Fold DUF2254 domain-containing protein.
Amino acid sequence: MKNYLYNVINYLVKLESKIAFYPTLMSLGGLFFAFIMYYLESLGISSYLIEHAPLLVVNDTETARSLLTTFVAGLISIMVFSFSLVMILLNQASSNFSPRVLPGLISNRRHQVILGIYISSILYSIFTLVAIEPNGNEYQLPGFSVLLAIVFMTVCLGAFIYFIHSISQAIQVNNILDKIFSTAITRLETLIDAEKESKTDFPDTSNWQVLKSHKSGYFQDLSSNNLINIAKENQCKIEVIPVKGTYVLKGAPIVKYSIDLDEDFVKQIAASFLYSKSELIEDNYVLAFKQITEIALKAMSPGINDPGTAINAIDYLTDLFLLRMHKNDRSCYFYENMPIVKIGTVTFSELLYSVMAALRTYCKHDFVIVTKLFGMLKHLLENQTKYSEQYKKPILQEVENLYQDTIKTHSNSTDLKRIEFLYNELI
């Protein structure tokens, strides 16, 4: 039951990243508010305000109809234009940067709220228009509701102006990079703070029982509390094999456990895995490295040729790698200072190689970018953490790989001397 609730909560959390989530909630709110005002009008709120505060009431039926009709038509036009801008933004981001950045742009809460303001105001205006009696007089006309419609229309105009400003900022590559970077930093800091030191190594799992996946999809998240409770209850240890963000095929091994477990517990373990067809940085910081790397590669493509963006991307990657060096390659959940659940993770060596392999392949012809990559590796070597010695070897290997690729690509003697100098400075 707990695991079922966890999956339901997780599903609702993932819904927040959908572009229609907040607009749907706010449109329901606008509809509900329209019925509240209809009820208040039936109690005579407009007639009361006509006597005590006539300025707060629109007391002319034709004026009210004209205003509300104009509001509905105008708001629909504004909403269509705003949705068109969002689609253009997504298309341009996919073409110029990377398709992977789309989920982050779609989940922009400010844009969702603005679209929600439009839809809720439209629904409110429509139902208020319907509430006007054909032969309206000062007691039948919902004059105060019409005044509120004017207020909502003013809010929508302000929201539209802000939307134009926000959409123009959201499409800028620096802002996209900064958002990806900030989200990844938050996720990494959370993981680092949650790490516990333990001198007890996790036992060999080669002979343990294996649980295979019952479906395919991206392994997005895990009910860690459920696995910990199962491990404590059965006094066993569990290893999660796939890494978050990887695509798990049906029938692939996903879990190893040290003792035979009842079928109910095995089903609970399988239900602890949350699959999805998309990825979010909030769940997997490695995706940030992929996105920033892809933006750098796209910037260096012949069609775009923007080395400045690639340099900015490398700066962000450097900062992320420096923080990643504070995290251990092994991720475990502990109980009484003993590791009972081991989580599959992307090691620092694999992460660095995947990023550098792509950058070396597509950017080695640009001497400025090569110099920047040598500078990144230099910063990583000089960074002092408790895992520095552990990560020193893969960094030096990438220095060697970068050197070998660049000396074969460049022919200018001055460039080659500079590359030789940078290489000798690091080894």
Notes: The beta strands are 209-212, 217-222, 238-240, 247-248, 253-257, 273-276, 331-335, 338-343. The radius of gyration is 29 Å. Residues 97 and 295 are 5 Å apart (CA to CA). The mean pLDDT is 82.
